[in-house]
Amino acid sequence: MPGRSGLAATHHAAELALIGGAGLAWYVTVSGLADMSAGPGTMGLGLWGFLGVWTLMMAAMMLPALAPLTSTYLRSIRAVRSRGVRAVRTTALIGGYLLTWIGFGIVAYEAAELSALLAENAADVAPWVGAGVLAAAGAYQLTPLKDFCLRHCRSPIAFLLHVSGYRGRLRDVRVGMYHGVYCVGCCWGLMVVLIAVGVMNLAWMAVLTVVIFLEKTSKYGPALSRIIGVSLIVFALFVPAHPELLPGLHMNAAM
User: Of 186, 190, 175, 177, whose CA–CA distance to 153 is shortest?
Assistant: First the structure.
């Protein structure tokens, strides 16, 4: 019983750490980056600056939904008696997870640069491209691949059986990266939507954070995924006539 109590305390501490880390990331994002434009492009940042901001955003948006994996992983390493070692290994897991999203951030940077070029040089075409992006992201929400990746994120036990043979000092980082690949597979469409509405669009960031969290933790997650998919497709229908709906692909008069 004492061992179980200690493990439960570790689980609660890990969940609180994830929530606290996400809260801190949100605070820094809102207080330090709110003045950045939600319009097209990379917010005037080069690749490394963009990746720094992107990592902060991913920590804010994705860490709360990482709780199912973290709890399951802590159970898998319960034989490790030292709480300090468990904390280090869990931190390495989260670090590996964020590394995967940093890798996706390079794709996001290129996509944001392309959105700026479209908005500036092909203003008539940009809304149609944006509508296509939204429709594609919505359609992906309805595919078997989305369902497969979402099932993994919602119940990572089978995944942990797969990675149980990992060895070496970087094993926990590898586990985090492996899970991150599935998470990217689950959420890349929603991140593309974020680029279309403006990378630093805090309102859309908040909405997508709630969607991602509920998809991965609520019993209605799979149904919500489909509702979001249909909603994005419907939203896409309005974009060609109202390009201002996608600030990430629209240059307003002030710009």
Answer: 186
CA 186/CA 180 separation, integer angstroms: 10
Find the Cα–Cα–Cα–Cα dihedral 37, 45, 202, 248, rounded to 10°: 60
Instruction: Please state, as a whole number, how many other Cβ atoms lie within 10 Å of the Cβ of residue 241.
Output: 9
Q: Higher pLDDT residue, 216 or 252?
A: 216
| pLDDT per position as a tens digit, 215-250 | 998 999 999 999 999 999 999 999 999 999 999 887
Q: Chain-centre distance of CA 237, in angstroms?
A: 25
Structure tokens at 163: 């990675």
Question: Encoding tokens for residue 41?
Answer: 């492009």
How far is it, in rounded angstroms, from Cα 179 to Cα 183? 6
- What is the C-alpha to C-alpha distance for residues 8 and 1, in angstroms, rounded to an integer? 10
| Residue 3 confidence (pLDDT) above 50 | no
Matching residue, tokens 């991150």: 180
What interhelical angle do 171-196 and 83-121 show, nearest 10?
Answer: 30
Residue 31: how many other CB atoms lie within 10 Å = 9
Put simply, whether the predicted model's pTM sits higher than 0.90 gets the answer no
| Alpha carbon separation from 42 to 45, 50, 124, 207, 249 (Å, rounded) | 6, 7, 21, 21, 12
Which residues lie closer than 8 Å to 2 by C-beta, 6 or more apart? none
Report helix, strand and coil shares of the chain as percent, to nearest 5.
Answer: 80, 0, 20
| Structure tokens given for 153 | 């994120």
Please report the pLDDT score of residue 222 as a whole number. 94
Compute the distance between CA of residue 26 and CA of residue 198 in angstroms, rounded to an integer: 17
CA distance 142 to 127: 23
